[in-house]
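We treat protein structure as text, and this decision shapes the records that our systems exchange. Such a record has a labelled line for the sequence and another for the backbone structure tokens. The record that follows is passed on verbatim for readers who wish to inspect the format:
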Amino acid sequence: MKRFIGFIATVALLEGVLSPSQAQFRWNPKPLPACRTFPITEIGFNYRISSDQATDQQLYIASDLGFMRNLSTRYALGASNFVGFGDDSEFRGGLKLRVRKWFTNGTSLDISPGILLWDSIWRFSRPGFTGSVDLKFEEWFGLSLIFEYRRAREEMYAHDTGIYLGMKSGSSAGLIGHGVVGLVAGVVGLIFLASFQSN
């Protein structure tokens, strides 16, 4: 833990000292030559637009944490850990490969295919498929289209094909969003635990 904190402090110090042309790591992603590597700290709020009846889920919070590396002034490649939370108390997660196309310093397109490695609903088998296409106007605001496919374990259950449309934030706004969601989830968990114990 101390080494991790030391690493973050060193990165922050270098970020403040180095000129933009020299900076290698940036919390606020930019294409080359301003930045070589950058973190993925995205959180998105999405609404289900597909009419599949395999689940009652409508609202979907999607979290992506990972890293990317600029390969050129136009393209970046990386990976992220994906976790999704539904308003029906379902949650699932997996890994994504990420490819970014830079249009300008603030505008980019991300294509992120991935696999679902775990799921809180037992009736769906693993692995499943997840993928997203994100158009970002700035790192703190973007439009997101998410596609998921989960196979049913048994014939009596339906497969789930989910398509979600929403907005997402990254960089510092994404970190703040993760903190808010984590705080709310913690408070809700404590309330649930307290009510469960009182019964």
Remarks:
- The helical segments are 2-17, 171-198.
- The longest helix spans residues 171-198.
